[in-house]
Write a structure and sequence with these properties.
Blueprint: H1 17-32, H2 45-58, H3 71-94, H4 107-136, H5 139-151, H6 153-158, H7 165-185, H8 188-204, H9 212-225, H10 237-253, H11 256-259, H12 261-274, H13 280-285, H14 295-326, H15 329-335, H16 337-348, H17 361-376, H18 379-409, H19 413-424, E1 430-433, E2 446-449, H20 456-462, E3 465-469, H21 470-478, H22 486-495, E4 497-502, E5 514-518, E6 540-541, E7 546-549, E8 569-577, E9 580-587, E10 594-599, E11 607-608, E12 611-612, E13 615-617, E14 623-627, E15 629-630, E16 634-641
Parallel strand pairs: 1-2, 1-3, 10-14
Antiparallel strand pairs: 3-5, 4-5, 6-16, 7-9, 8-9, 8-13, 10-16, 11-16, 12-15, 13-14
Helix pairs in contact: 1-4, 1-5, 2-3, 4-5, 4-7, 4-17, 5-17, 5-18, 7-8, 7-9, 8-10, 9-15, 14-16, 14-17, 14-18, 17-18
Length: 644
């Protein structure tokens, strides 16, 4: 076998400008379209954590909290600081100066800035992959690699989030470009830059630390191409410069790493063993490598297939075959990360999440570019095959990506479900929610969370309704042996009443399937609320005949019970308000057709925490209007209006 040239022919600085401009523009448009999804609500829970840290950093509080790498939040803090400075300067010129204590922008603007930063990093990664392809391959291969990454549905999707994943891939791609330069130039400075970028990548997200294997492989290639034996690589001065650059990058990405080494050092040292094993916090306490899940191998392949399509997989297989056949050491050094990372994630973690696939995408794109370039070098027939390959890739990857961007641009599925809840569920009812669910607040409803932890029987005591999100449902049901919460969802399907389902063409972070359940049969028939006009009453019953009980008596309530010798009164449930349940006991079995709630009366009555009650359910299971706002600590009384 004949070894191929290690790099493409000499290039001019202007080479590929039009390709970069075209592919980069497509990549940026794909990642900016629909970037305001869900606003003003923020549905990605991890975005809230990112935004809080970034806001603190922008105001000078630079010490990070928690155990996660802070470099992405430092970048966002700088973006916020610069944006506020520019806005303040413009305000000073064009209008009155805003007080320093008042935020320059609203929450939506800050979130858009953070998401735009991720989108820019995603588009920048496409450009870097093109430059890396030009350095390691030819023009045709570089263009194909950049196009595949630009259209990758997974990379486009995660570029919409104010999350560190795509920014980590950006710094990792820069590190790969520096590794290619180090293999070419073999200078101490190129090694230092390579190590520094690896440090920044790791401080953006810890799983980038496995790129270290690429740095070692690049060093081995450089030593081999100099004609030295591999054993001399360990004593090479450049290896010391590589690690000096790595230390500088780790410090630059998180200065407090060294200032608080006792707290953060053990985490950094154990990360290679506990990569995303459930949660990093749990893994830092107990490190186990005995868990081997065969399903992870299948999940890893399916995730890669979803991200790059069959076009990318087939072209990538051709490219890897060409690299092995020609013994292209430089590309082999770059690709060394893939088997190491894939095996570690597939063996050492409980499940191969789809976002765990993101670090692999530049490598798959480069391999596919190598395969496409191989076709293009086969004369006219090869160029025809190359063109067909790109057209198939545009159709296969572009279609789901455009659909996903369109869904980002549309109204979020959870907002549609929230509107239905406000129209159809009685105000004051208590609703249990998963995370990543409709934006329903405690102003109109009682809110219960984490009911899946307590089981369906206990959930029925705390809430009348439950709203599930397919994100958590699929996560729990995929691995029921790991998640005892899966039993709660199985019980929901078999024992609760499904009221409404909201589905979308694509299921994911932005548009999960929403299911709304009635936990008790009394709430199974959901009435549509209409404006209520009081009717003339036949008199007022004395309020002293009414007793209020707190939530501790909730489970003894008896809807529809009749009075008798052992039960001299009938209990009627008032829709639960936030943080408390309220029971009204009607003496002598009186059944009113309306109830008036008033606040601030005698101290002998129950003190309710907060909320607003508007409906009462009585024996016929018909809603009766209740009016009167309740404030924190209010004392309650009631008047019952007899039937006319």
């Amino acid at each position: 076998m004949v070894e191929s040239p290690p790099m493409s022919p000499a290039r001019k600085p202007s080479d590929g400008v039009w390709e970069i401009a075209a592919v980069g523009t497509v990549a940026l448009i794909m990642r900016l379209w629909g970037i305001g999804f869900g606003l003003p609500e923020g549905y990605h829970q991890d975005e809230a954590y990112t935004m809080m840290m970034a806001a603190d950093f922008s105001r000078g509080a630079l010490k990070p909290e928690g155990i996660y790498p802070p470099f992405f939040q430092y970048i966002l803090g700088l973006v916020f600081f610069l944006a506020e400075g520019i806005a303040g300067a413009v305000s000073a010129i064009l209008g009155p100066v805003r007080p320093v204590a008042v935020p320059v922008f609203g929450h939506e603007t800050y979130l858009l800035l953070a998401r735009a930063t991720s989108a820019a990093a995603g588009a920048g990664t496409v450009v870097i992959v093109y430059r890396l392809g030009r350095r390691l391959m030819d023009r045709a291969g570089a263009g194909a690699a950049a196009l595949l990454l630009a259209l990758s549905p997974l990379h486009v999707r995660d570029s919409h989030f104010a999350m560190p994943d795509t920014t980590m891939v950006f710094w990792s791609a820069l590190f790969l470009l520096a590794a290619a330069a180090a293999m070419e130039k073999r200078s101490g400075w190129s090694y230092t830059v390579m190590g520094f970028l690896l440090g920044l990548s790791t401080q953006t997200k810890y799983n980038a630390v496995f790129m270290y294997v690429v740095a070692l492989a690049a060093h081995a290639v450089a030593v081999r191409e100099e004609g030295l034996a591999i054993r001399h690589a360990l004593w090479d001065r450049r290896l010391l410069l590589l690690h000096a650059g790595l230390a500088a990058g780790l410090f630059a990405g998180s200065p407090y790493l060294f200032l608080e080494w006792r707290r953060l050092g053990p985490i950094m040292l154990t990360v290679p063993l506990v990569l995303m094993r459930g949660s990093l916090r749990e893994s830092a306490e107990t490190v186990e490598l005995t868990y081997i899940n065969p399903e992870n191998w299948r999940a890893g392949f399916e995730n890669t297939l979803a991200a790059m399509g069959w076009t990318g997989i087939v072209a990538g297989a051709i490219g890897v075959g060409w690299v092995l056949w020609t013994r292209n050491r430089r590309l082999l050094a770059i690709f060394s990360f893939v088997p190491v990372y894939f095996v570690i994630v597939a063996v050492a973690v409980r499940y191969f999440r789809i976002r765990d696939t993101l670090p692999l995408l530049p490598f798959v794109a480069l391999a596919a570019g190598a395969g496409a370039g191989t076709l293009a070098r086969r004369g006219r027939i090869g160029w025809a095959a190359y063109g067909i390959l790109l057209m198939v890739a545009v159709f296969e990857l572009g279609r789901p990506t455009l659909l996903m961007d369109y869904l980002f641009w549309q109204r979020d599925n959870r907002q549609v479900a929230a509107d239905w809840i406000r129209r159809n569920l009685p105000t004051g009812a208590t609703i249990g929610f998963d995370r990543y669910n409709p934006p329903v607040t405690g102003e109109l409803y009682g809110i219960e969370k984490n009911l899946a932890d307590v089981g369906l029987d206990e959930a029925r005591k705390r809430a009348e309704y439950y709203v599930t999100s397919s994100y958590w449902y699929m996560r729990y049901m995929f691995a029921p042996e790991r998640h005892p919460e899966s039993r709660f969802y199985r019980d929901l399907e078999s024992k609760a009443v499904l009221l409404k389902t909201f589905d979308m063409p694509a299921v994911g972070w932005t548009n999960p399937k929403i299911r709304i359940y009635a936990l008790r049969s009394a709430q199974a028939a959901v009435p549509r609320r209409d404006p209520w006009v009081p009717r003339p009453s036949g008199g007022v019953q004395n309020a002293s005949d009414v007793v209020f009980l707190d939530g501790s008596a909730y489970e003894t309530s008896n809807l529809g019970g009749r009075a008798g010798p052992d039960r001299p009164f009938e209990r009627v449930l008032v829709s639960r308000v936030p943080l408390e349940s309220v029971l009204i006991i009607l003496r002598n079995g009186e059944r009113p057709n309306a109830v008036r709630i008033e606040s601030g009366l005698t101290r002998e009555r129950l003190a309710l925490r907060s909320g607003e009650v508007r409906h009462v359910f009585v024996r016929p299971r018909a809603p009766l209007p209740v009016w009167g706002a309740l404030r924190d600590g209010d004392l309650l009384s009631a008047e019952f209006l007899r039937k006319p």
